[in-house]
TrEMBL record:
The keyword Iron does not apply. PANTHER family: GLUTATHIONE-REGULATED POTASSIUM-EFFLUX SYSTEM ANCILLARY PROTEIN KEFG. This is NAD(P)H-dependent oxidoreductase. Pfam families: Flavodoxin_2. Residues 2-174 form the Flavodoxin-like fold domain.
Length: 184
């Protein structure tokens, strides 16, 4: 059986709608998986790098779940990757300790799909924005599973109604189901 680590890069998961629901669904559908919340383990702006690297070695499949902020993953997830996936550990001639591990990237965007086209307001597709993020798998010798993303996932309680909440909940559950199918 695969040992799965789900890394949540949302900076405030309790106040998230889509990412919180995705994590909750993954927890139910992959009860053997470990949920690793970066918003709960960062202390004074720092990660315990040795502890994080040791944790990664215990698993063979990683699922990185993050909102899509400024055309990439969250700053929290970026900081964690920058600090944990170091030369000599994750890549380089003396590294690649995560080589052969599976990685799946999961994103939620606030904007609708139509905005992520060359003629849309974002001027690029989500896939095009993800080239640098997906490069992590290649550099570290990991097996990149297909990226899962869902668009138009914004819910603002003071702006949206219960119908919008139900719509986001359904989309988040479908998103989680797609992840589960890819890692089982």
């Amino acid at each position: 059986m695969k040992k799965i680590l789900i890394v949540s890069g949302h900076p405030d998961l309790e106040n998230s709608t889509a990412n919180r629901i995705i994590i909750e669904n993954l927890s139910k559908k992959l009860p053997e998986a470990t949920i690793h919340r970066l918003d709960k383990i960062i202390e004074n702006g720092n990660f315990n790098i040795e502890k994080e690297q040791t944790l990664l070695l215990e698993y063979d499949t990683y699922i990185f779940v993050s909102p899509f902020y400024w055309y990439s993953w969250s700053a929290l997830m970026k900081k964690w990757v920058d600090e944990v996936f170091t030369h000599g550990f994750a890549h380089g001639s003396t590294g690649k300790k995560v080589q052969g591990k599976n990685i799946l990237l999961s994103f939620t965007t606030g904007a609708p799909f139509e905005e992520y086209k060359h003629e849309g307001s974002m001027r690029h597709t989500v896939e095009e924005f993800l080239y640098p993020v997906e490069g992590l798998a290649h550099l570290c010798g990991m097996n990149a599973l297909p990226t899962v993303y869902s668009n138009d996932m914004t819910f603002i309680p003071t702006v949206h109604d219960d119908n919008r909440l139900k719509e986001i909940q359904k989309k988040a559950e479908k998103h989680a189901n797609r992840i589960v199918e890819l890692v089982k």
